[in-house]
Amino acid sequence: MTTSTLDHAHDDHHGHDHAHHDMPTGARRWLFATNHKDIGTLYLWFAFTMLLSGGVLALMIRTELFQPGLQFFRPEFFNQLTTMHGIVMVFGAIMPAFVGFANWMIPLQVGASDMAFARMNNFSFWLLPPAAFLLAASFFVPGGATAAGWTLYAPLSTQMGPGMDMAIFALHIMGASSIMGSINIIVTILNMRAPGMTLMKMPMFCWTWLITAFLLIAVMPVLAGAITMTLTDRHFGTSFFNAAGGGDPVMYQHIFWFFGHPEVYIMILPAFGIVSQIIPAFARKPLFGYASMVYATASIAVLSFIVWAHHMFTTGMPVTSQLFFMYATMLIAVPTGVKVFNWVATMWKGSMTFETPMLFAVGFLFVFTMGGFTGLILAVTPIDIQVQDTYYVVAHFHYVLVAGSLFALFAGFYYWAPKWTGHMYPEGRGKAHFWLSLITFNITFFPMHFLGLAGMPRRYADYAVQFTDFNMIVSVGAFGFGLSQVYFLLFVVLPTIKGGPKAEAKPWEGAEGLEWTVPSPAPFHTFENPPLVK
């Protein structure tokens, strides 16, 4: 990307007196927020709250699985825990966290004064807390929360109590929020870039979010359709998924995964964008193969629509379909491999330093690639049929989603927090957070590969006695990982917000982009007069 310079000629006295006179205060500032930075902050706090609550559900699961036999929870409640852990983490933590980053950084990176639709931006955030409340409250209705797995497969989902309806409504609300957020992101990127900022000069983070937003608009209505059909099956006498009435429960899986597989990329493409910003900054080199990165991201998005049934190799589909989905899935590994190659090539012969953002980015690269390889193994139909619904699959998607999405989010926090808060985070504690997270993550999820290969099924509250040792290790690791994130909140995030060394406008020597041309913390109103990108 070319070096961006700002035309400060008449920006100074305009920008700065604006920052004081119409900045709302108190509860009004947050309740009626239309400023992209405030809304980004709200998203990030919401996501972190959901991360911790989803984490508590996970630790309850691991407490039960510490030893064989039923210690703490009835199997029915255990299934509610596994289901709600998945829904809360996917729709409540990972997705809103990336939208928080988008709200904060996209206007700063493209030189826009704000997001395109400020009030809609406010609305799309405030849809989320009621949805989260519905999910939490569903534990307390008769029959408890839904226990159909986060995928909500029929016929289980058509037989649950009212907790299932609450989950359906919560997902509808969150889906509406996602669609509005995506429209906002697309219009902001396409219509509000600063003069001279062509699409191919845009930071990779903006590109990955632009493509992700199109994916969201394409697939959220598909999820809405699947859960609406479930709702009508439950209450209005239809039989979409009831074989006795002429329906087909496998059809639910097709519809769900036609949403669900692009959704997996929705949760990782913005992570690719964050990592593509950080690695060049700390290697002090431009991103290797920028154009190929853009095309690889786009091709991942396109291919993500033709691989959905690799989640369904054991449903009895014809061999020709199995072959098609197997090869299509292997094909999607190619653009992902291109990205990994480009990141490594960017670091090659760079003058690298390893501050916390870079540590998390390199950690992401290492562990995400491992998750990618297990995904490639699961793409092979005969292997997948053996390990389907075992802990091997659990290991695979946590390597992609925790070490992928979550590590990239941490990397992004450490990279941009100086711009958000005006303070440098405590470097030593950041590094401690990285090493604690990386080590406990691997202690938690690596043994799951062996459990899965040995045949331990997932989503069971009890297991055969030969799996005890690995499960004990996994549970200990899980508590370590959870406590590492509490450490991150108490000893990194809060101290950074409260104080710490003042951050310069550009705290990282190798960082490029418009966001580093505004002061730290970024003023309430930025780019009142659009900057000129040279």
Automatic annotation (TrEMBL):
Membrane topology: Multi-pass membrane protein
GO biological process terms on file: electron transport coupled proton transport; oxidative phosphorylation; respiratory electron transport chain
CDD domains reported in the protein's UniProt record: Cyt_c_Oxidase_I
Chain intervals with Basic and acidic residues compositional bias: 7-20
Cytochrome oxidase subunit I profile domain sequence ranges: 30-534
Locations listed in the record: Cell membrane; Membrane
The protein, known as: Cytochrome c oxidase subunit 1
